[in-house]
Amino acid sequence: ICLVREDGKSVLFSAPSVLSARYQYLKKVQLWSAEKTKSRAVSFSTSYVIEFRRSGDRRESGSFFTFGGGWAFAITPDQRVGASGPESLGLFEIDPKTGKSLRGEKKTKTVAVELDISRFSAQVTFPDPQIPHLGLDIDSVKSIVTRPIGNFTRFVDRPIAVFIDYDAAKSQLQVRVQKLSGSDTSRSVPDKKKAKLYLSYAPLRLSDLVNEYSYVGFSTRLPQDEDGYYLLSSWKFSTKWVSLRT
Closest Cα partner for 205 from 181, 231, 169? Predict the structure, then answer.
């Protein structure tokens, strides 16, 4: 499912059938402190380049909305995809009428930034914006806030740089997207200064939403091989402890 390419610079996400997958750090990351004597939390910055590639047949036929199930940078309590199905982004099992997790609040503890390129499933009835869009998810794949990110044909089959910054002191999350140009060998370089700010959300206090020690990385619902594949490269993640106001 997750294959490192020969150049060692990217990871190919591909499967013979539609399924959910995770690509996260093996060890949990501490995101806030439970110490009563100190009120501290982690600010973080992460960036990556993602490509949603359709097969040649799908691209030529113009069958845009039968491709893929979306991608999310996710903070989760575990690495279990379980029986997560259509429109779930591989995060958790969902109620198709509401998009909420079926695992319960105590077991979900998930915050994710989704890039949704999936079609609507016949089983899913909760409202969702036109694809492709960016969304902020908290214990549900019905995003609490969404932003359109452009025409499907200009977003798919090309590298997209994503920059996510969380300021724990301000309880603020910002997401920027940069559409890169060029080929695998000579493409434009990811540059946050050139990326467009699509989402800025506050207040978002992670200590109220996720476990003190959580898994960090990506969750996805992959298309089958004949429809296409995803390609991840240039992933960076860094943290910084900050003091919080009490």
Answer: 169
**DSSP labels, 157-168:** SSEEEEEEEEET
Q: How many residues does the chain have?
A: 246
pLDDT tens series, the chain, 246 aa: 888 887 888 999 999 988 999 999 999 999 999 886 568 899 999 999 999 998 866 666 555 555 667 899 999 999 999 888 878 999 999 998 899 999 998 999 999 999 988 765 656 677 777 678 999 999 999 999 999 988 887 888 889 999 999 999 999 999 999 999 866 556 689 999 999 999 999 999 999 999 999 999 999 999 888 888 999 999 999 999 998 875
Is there a contact between 229 and 223 (Cβ–Cβ < 8 Å)? yes
Q: What is the pTM of this model?
A: 0.92
Strands (E), the chain: 2-4, 10-13, 19-24, 29-30, 40-54, 71-76, 111-116, 133-138, 145-148, 159-167, 172-179, 196-201, 213-222, 228-243
Nearest of 121, 131, 203 to residue 167 by alpha carbon: 203
Closest CA to 171 of 197, 201, 210: 201
The SS3 of residue 107 is helix
Bridge pairing between strands 228-243 and 40-54: antiparallel
